[in-house]
Amino acid sequence: MRRSSTHRFSALFPPKSYMLASKTVSPTHPPSVFNIFFWEIVVNEANFVRKCIAAESSQDDLWGKLICTNFKISFITHNSIPQQKFQYVHHLLGEHDIPLACVDQVVTVNDAKGKQKVLGSNQKLKFNPTELILYCKDFRIVRFRFDEAGPESAKKVCLAIAHYSQPADPQLLFGFEFAQSRQYGSSGNIIERVNGVDPGGGCQTPLFDRPSDWDREIKRTGASEWRVCSINEGYTVSPSLPEYFVVPASMADLDLKQYACSYTGQRIPMWCWNHSNGSSLVRMSSICDVQQQRKLDQRVSSAITKSHPQRSEVLTSDLDKTLPSIQEVQAALIKLRQSCVIEPFEESEEKWLSSMENSRWTEYVRAFLRHAVEVVYMLEGKRVSVSLQEEEDRDLCCVVASLVQLMLDPHCRSLVGFQALVQKEWVMAGHRFLDRCNHLKKNDKEEAPLFLLFLDCVWQLMNQYPAAFEFTETYLTVLSDSMWIPVFSTFLFNCPQQRAEYSREFVHSKSIPLGNEQALKFPPVWDWSQQFTLKDQTLFNNPLYVGKGATCVQNGTVKTFRRTKQRNYSSTVRGVPSALKNGLRGDVDTLSRRNSLVARLRPDFSQAREVTETPCERFTREWFSRPTDLQGLLLPQLLPTHVTLWRLYFLRWVPEASISQGGAITAFHKLSLLADEIESLQNQLRQYNTSGGVGGTPASTPNPAHPEHGRMYFKCTPSPNRAASTPEYLSSSFPFSPVGNLCRRSILGTPLTKFLNGAKIWLSTETLANETV
């Protein structure tokens, strides 16, 4: 089957003639080498390309074909990567594939002429490139050499990659083609959704696109004085709010429609979560009509107060005044990326840690965690409702509202609960994923890694309470990487209304018959079987996690296990002045730029007695003095020594930072073996009891065979002489590999750091674009 390109500039880069009608493989390569999907178009390619592997030597480099499609960049080789003994299987991407949406900048280099150029969409290239460098949003730096490739084919494939990685229109994102093919399937019939999620396996995560999902959440949290509101059906009131959301039961629909005009983006206050004591968490945009502000504040606060059993007051938290701006967060990530992967990995620990601190990334992580703790204190300690306020209610509110629920609600620390939390507070609440991920490369000022910052905050909590979360840091990393695979509705749009609008426009422009359906169905990311095998999905399971409904064996009987409370022995909290306990310092907590860490670790105890302890600090101190209930409230330690760099995410591609058979994965391996052995024994005991071996005639020997599918990735060996040694392929980067994913050799004899000096994002496009090349 052949089809012309959907790209408006298809004449510039015509698709190859071997466009295939279904998921299959290129006829000239083995099946395990190159997969191409339905509606995926091969745009251009170059043969005899060398992929750089090692940082200093080229002897391990791979030779093959570089291919650009309308979805990804593929490198086809028959050689295997040296030193790589493990590779998880990804259904959408091959070993050497890079999604076009993951490409941040495309740089071409000509060694002979001493020139380099950052390629933009539809730009010309006046020299024949000898090298191509791809700077990726997931921190990879991938380099290709064209020493033996034809000059014209090298130039064309570079231009194609630059062009297709910067689409001019949302409908040119591959997700639209993918949704069209997925909705019809191979048989041509429309695939129906089951229980809110497309069939195919994975978790049944509520999408909150129907009233029943919200009703279940209201009942789960006991929010009896709140109701599901449907005034925004068809997005007639607010374009960025979901069609269904929750409001106080005492507020009438007519009043809500009238109030909407006075809020920024017509985003009237929306319920997030209810505490068991009756206090509620609400989010809202700012009131743009100053004349109506006082009256609206009173009416909304009165309605929220009525929903509280004790009619407690409502406290407003203005996030724009208390938290870093999205521009500051973006600037911090750029500096962090410079230190982690751009510059050579520092041998001096002191210099490298200073560079990390100067980026201010971990400082901002602490700031968001600290503010979430303050909101938790209001909800739990003061037992009052809290209204989170932000100008548009689409960025900072998403982070804080999610963290508060994560600390207070153990359901959100389960896999399904966490996915429902992200779906509710980010996707349906209208976080601008399209703009913040900068999928269209239109405006760098709109780009901001708010979701990555949230995941980093989640990892900090996981790092301090490893047994309280059902999922692992591998899951968080893979979830972040999924932002750059442009096929999931979760990360592809700014709001549900935009998804519906763009979908209708695409269907109309392509004259696609959908029957009773009004728009394309984009798959959510939560069905992980779309990306990984069942075996690889077990890497998401935390062997230490014990939920409320977990089972154990006691006196030969399988019973429900409830974790006993554990005392938190933290020497850093006890014996430290109240101003420093848990890192809470109020308004003066912003880190200074010089010797700040040393100053924090040397407090003046003579003046500490004069510092008045705030109610929030007292609440936190008292909580840390009690045993920790992992199925209850969790509060993070917030001293700079407690909030550390998320190594797996930020350093996974750095060869110098990779520890062979070391790192956290070694403990994960041992714990997985133990958890798998316990699960195996429980299964054997169930079989023994079922067969009548207890209280009667002894049954036959239980089947010792290990179940084919278990919760753990690493399986215990049934042999009595099993070896529990750490596998050779494990490293601190597992399941990722830095080999071939971070190559930062000098360019034209100039250190890469100098070449990138002063870059806003990786390279200065403005500077290099003006060069005569």
From TrEMBL:
GO biological-process terms attached to the record: phosphatidylinositol dephosphorylation
PROSITE patterns: PPASE_MYOTUBULARIN
InterPro entries: MTMR12-like_C, Myotubularin, Myotubularin-like_Pase_dom, PH-like_dom_sf, Prot-tyrosine_phosphatase-like
GO cellular component, one term: membrane
Superkingdom, natural source: Eukaryota
Domain Myotubularin phosphatase: 208-650
Region (Disordered) residue spans: 692-711
Family statement drawn from the similarity comment of this UniProt entry: Belongs to the protein-tyrosine phosphatase family. Non-receptor class myotubularin subfamily.
Name assigned to this protein: Myotubularin phosphatase domain-containing protein
Organism expressing this protein natively: Denticeps clupeoides
Gene: MTMR10
